[in-house]
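Please predict the structure of the following assembly.
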Amino acid sequence: MGIVRRRGPVPTDAPAGGGRSRGFDPSPTPFTDGDGLAVVGTGLAHRYEGPSGPVPVLVDVTFTVPRDGYAALVGPSGAGKTTLLSLVGGLEQVQTGRLEVGGQDVASLEGDELAAYRRSTVGFIFQNFGLLEALTASENVELAATLAGDRTAARRRRTADLLEAVGMTPRASHRPGALSGGERQRVAIARALVNSPRLILADEPTGNLDADTSDEVMHLLESLHRDRGCTLMVVTHDRVLAGRATQQLALDRGRITSTTTAAPGVRPTGAPVSGP
Amino acid sequence: MSWADTVRFAARSVLRRPGRAALTVVAVALAAALFTAMLTMAATAQGRVLNQLAKGGPLAGIQVAAAAPNPSQAGVDNPTRGAPKPIDQAALDQIARIHGVDVVLPIVTAQALVAWPGHTATDGNGAGPTGSGSVVFDQLVGVDLSRLGDFPVTLSAGRFPTPGSMTEVDVTPVLLARYGITGTRTRSVVGTQIVLGAPRGFRSADGTPVFRSRWTKAVVVGVVTQQAGSGGVLASLALVQADHRWTAGGDPTVDTDANRSPYAGLFVIARGLDAVPSVRAEVEAVGYSTSAPENLIATVERYVHVVEIVLTGIGVIALAIASLGITNALLAAVRERRREIGILKAVGARDRDVLRSFLIEAAVMGALGGLIGTVLGLALARLVAAIVDGYLTSQGLAGVHVSTPYLLGIGTVVGATVLAVVAGTVPARRAARLPAREAVEL
Amino acid sequence: MRSTRTVRLAVASCAVGALLAACGTPRATPTTPPRPSGPPTTYVAVGGSDSVGDGTGDPLLDAWPQQFFRRSLPQAAVLVNAAVPGSTVAAALGDQAPLAASSHATVVTVWLVSADLLGGTPPATYGAELLRLLSALRSGGATTVLVGNVPPLDQLPGYPACRDGAADTGRSLRCPAELPAPATLAATTAAYDQVIAADAARSGSVLVDLHDAVPSSAAHGGAPFLTPSGTDLSTAGSTLVARTFGAALPTAASHTA
């Protein structure tokens, strides 16, 4: 697999390739503390409305993921992992507490600002791949750049590069229905990266994949995290995969029960870092 | 997201469910076809009715008779006339100078013996000794054949005579009825030879009155219904003027009935229906009686307008019902595509990006349905008109002509599109308000 | 991708094509042929009661000048029937010849024999008056004049009626108080034919030999030339006269417009 090299200086919310931004797309606070973004959550709480009243999903969650960090959110089903990731990714509105990404208060974002945050700051990878069936692989990757209003030539160039990086160039014109699970996830990864986000969030990225494919996908994610220098947060129920991260946040019934940070060069499970 | 990208995305979304999209488009198309067909047929019927009222001539046409006006009949469409009064060139020129007059067309008539070899008059008025025979006494009507569109003349078989022709004439169903030729049999006279004789009175040397006729041969090239003048034969001005001069040049003590007015009448075309009343008043001030179906036309136009309003209402209701189909289809699409919309939001789509996409989907279905429906509606109107035309012409009447209402077609497509967009507003707003978390919900 | 684009293009083309087809073409106005060209033929018939169709079934249509006009002259020709029932050549010189001149006749037929012959006009007098008439009608050569001679005596309109004792032949022709003997009349007929032929030659007119064309009543077959009363031409007789004049018409005169 090829490796995507970062273009130019620190990426901001302006579209890559010099494309003209369309519509309302405010620039967030310029990031000056490195390539990745630090994620700091303080006293986060979240609840859903159930048939018999509110159901707490997160209770007083406080955590920090350093910039360029690689964190795994682990825990049993219903622990609140996906909800926490959704809050960080801006898919859910923060109800209680404070959430800062790269020093920016995410809780204060709404409407177009929140959409811009999701579009340019975050790259989200879904468990069920999250590809649109009506579009080809190439068009799915290009979608985020299209939403950013980038010029056609520039975004197509970027799309082609990303597809090559994830090894999907021969299947670029195929629709998701014609791709395997692993291939779809690669396309999803490429899509998550098209706007050069500084924070990648992956919700059970290997949940629907076999062991070999899971390994390949995780290798891809990790190499992109290292080479592009962006913060990576992964939700997984697989302890082995969680052990590949430099930081593990364990959740249970909406609370962080433990935070494990590995020494530099050593993964939290104790296994040494090796290989790309 | 640019408009072009939004349109492309919307088109892809429509084609994902081709069956549903097709059904929705068909519903809009049927409504648009109904709307277009009804209004086109209404316009065609209006044109036919008004044409019938104007006897085939322009609506703003006024007939001027060689007679004085009747003061007690002012403002009446078809008044009784006063005493005969010849129309000469000076009177024609004076009338042509009246404000509001577009053109003045002269009408000349001449008495004629109509001799038709192979045909026998059946009305007892033949010129033969027993009132039968091939010759009847009638009148020729001469008009400028290059301006037949301006006269109340309607062709029902064959063609009009060549302008200026001295050897071609048209005959009227009234003349044909004198020979017992009616209905579809009137077409059979086209191409037959007819001989026309203009009588002239003489006094022989011993004072005996004698009539000598100037005879011409002509081919009957068509059958017409005409209100330009009283007569069963329509011919060129040149032909009829020659006969008129022959008759008028006779001994007035022998032929006391001969019409010596240079023009038997005039057909005046005003510059629009609004000018007709004032032009009529001025012509009557010059001293001639006029007639025009202005009041009747105005009344008919009002009633036809009411019919148009009703038909438009029916058509709009049909389109609105079809638009509800768009609402239903899009609401179903929103329900089915919750996750997809959530993903769009998750990768950075704004609320208005989603709103636009769904509105464009609605607009595409509306526009496509409107376009197909307009084409179908026009075709249907033409089909109905062809059937009606065939029936009318089989009865020896003038047919109908369907116009191509371009504005109606454009309006239908635009209207269907607008209604579709309105119908798509509720589902589009619902889709736009869906939260991004729909992307992750199982 | 390519097939989808092709399908879209095809659908769009069909839609546009259908729209254009529905719009249709304007209704074509009836075409009219070009006007005929050439100088008009004005035909004046100079004659007596035979020329106005007395005795035929439909005089206005069956009179022999009408038949000659319809069959032998161009479509744009005009006929002025100047004939006066019972007219002699002398009378025709007074009222029919001026009408022919004022009508600018280009073709004139002359058949005036019964009134003069049965009225006892001597052949020499008849010939002189006929020559004046023909010369006047010829207009210095501008007019084609056809002059008919006398048919066989028993086919002369009016003669059989007078021979059988009628006082007159109806509204126009009076029988002489004493009808000459047949042999005398036959000789007079022959003399008339001679002067008619001579006058035709002298004036440049075309002689129409009815004496040769009309069979005598003794000949068998064919429709009768005269009406049963013997006073007038029958319809068949008018047709035969018209055809004979038509056959004698010079080609140039028959082909002008």
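Residues 38 and 311 of chain B are 7 Å apart (CA to CA). Chain B has two domains: 3-54+298-439, 61-292.
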